[in-house]
Amino acid sequence: MSVAQRPFQNSRGRLMPLGRDDARVLANQGYLDRIRGDERGWSDRDDGYHWHDFDGRRVCHHYDPDDGIHWWGWYFGSYYFWTPYYAGYWWWYDPYWHRWLFLYNDGWWWQGPDQIYTYDGGSYYAYEDSVGGEVAVPDATPPVDQPPQDPGGQESDQKTYYSADGTRMVVVGGQNQDAYLYDTATPPVFDPVYLGSGVTEVRFENNADGSLSEILTLTGDGGFQVYDKDGYSIGSFDQSGGQDQGTSGASIQSQGGTSSSAARHGFSLRASGALSGLRALEPGGSSSW
Asked: Can you list the domains of the chain with their CATH numbers?
């Protein structure tokens, strides 16, 4: 049967790595065993294209003798996705930021000069410690080549705060720096809750056992709001220390938000040592790690 030759991309034509559900296919242990066996017995003089059937899925194997890299082409519906399996990881080259990303725990990651970044929805985020949890901060580095964007839209500048126990996240972003509280359970226990605008920072207060107790949102005017773990207001405070009467948070329908889990980044950084072997595959042979 004929197979359409269309790269994996979104509706705007932007080249993308596999999403979480499709990425799980690449982690199938049976497939990995077959792939490792194929590569171990490969002749470095064979640079042809060889097709395999992995439980009904078409997969193509190609060895590039110039770089010494094995490439695997996976088909998902009518789209294909080429990726090398190298140093124990699957890799994807971002053609806009000129970065090699590796697949770990169903998510894509980039080893930056000083820290690890997660890739989500076309943007890069670095995890940093915050009061009572941690925060995913977007990477402000501009792309080398501009990717397609939503008409009139810009890349996300939102920050996502995670509670230390992993049960809640607060997304802050948009022109008004709106803050929304999300339950991280699948499915979520409640719809996202609006916590206010003009938010500059989110802090979490934890119980002695590490579970979440309260959420604080700080605003640019020096005031802050206190909420319980489900987004119900306990009280608001202005910069003079005055307290207003608490009111319950307003529930809204889902507005999206980052799908990265803070618990996903506790992996070994051994992948960073593999980057040097992939540099020759970049256009021009250069690299920006």
From this structure: 6-90 (no CATH), 158-239 (2.40.10)
